[in-house]
């Protein structure tokens, strides 16, 4: 004989799950908006400094460009395009064996560094 409280427990779990999901979505959207606003202000700062008579040093320009780069996902974040199966839920995610790849900005920096060192 099922408990008379079972439907209430299921509804409670569903409501709690939805509320946690909505809070996390709100937090990630807020972080994304803040990052875009920071990128915009950095790029406007670069534009203003390049337009003024005061020269902009290469080191400062490189630092500002690095700050204005888009966010990269950390290894703990889930890729939204990748689906998660029941096997991964119960068995855990398999670790990738290969070494982490360098992003395109790091590759450009390495190429530039190699060119500078070869001169």
Structural overview:
- By secondary structure, this protein is mostly helical.
- The protein has helices at residues 6-51, 58-67, 86-91, 104-118.
- The termini are far apart.
- The mean pLDDT is 79.
Features:
mainly alpha; about 120 residues; 4 helices; about 65% helix
SSE sequence, one letter per element: HHHH
Count, helices: 4
Largest sheet: none
Helix content: 55-70%
User: CA-to-CA gap between the ends?
Assistant: 83 Å
> Averaging pLDDT over every residue, what do you get?
79
Number of strands: 0
Low-confidence spans: pLDDT under 50, at least 5 residues? none
Beta-strand proportion = under 5%
- Which structural class best describes the helix and strand composition? mainly alpha
State the shape: elongated
Compact summary:
The protein has 119 residues and is an all-alpha fold.
């Amino acid at each position: 004989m099922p408990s008379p409280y079972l439907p209430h427990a299921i509804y409670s779990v569903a409501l709690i799950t939805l509320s946690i999901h909505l809070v996390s979505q709100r937090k990630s959207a807020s972080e994304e908006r803040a990052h875009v606003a920071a990128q915009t202000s950095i790029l406007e700062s670069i534009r203003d400094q390049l337009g003024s008579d005061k020269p902009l040093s290469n080191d400062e320009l490189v630092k500002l460009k690095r700050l204005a780069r888009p966010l990269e996902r950390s290894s703990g974040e889930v890729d939204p395009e990748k689906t998660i199966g029941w096997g991964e839920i119960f068995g855990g995610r398999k670790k990738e064996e290969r070494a982490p790849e360098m992003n395109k900005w790091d590759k450009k920096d390495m190429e530039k560094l190699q060119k500078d060192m070869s001169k």
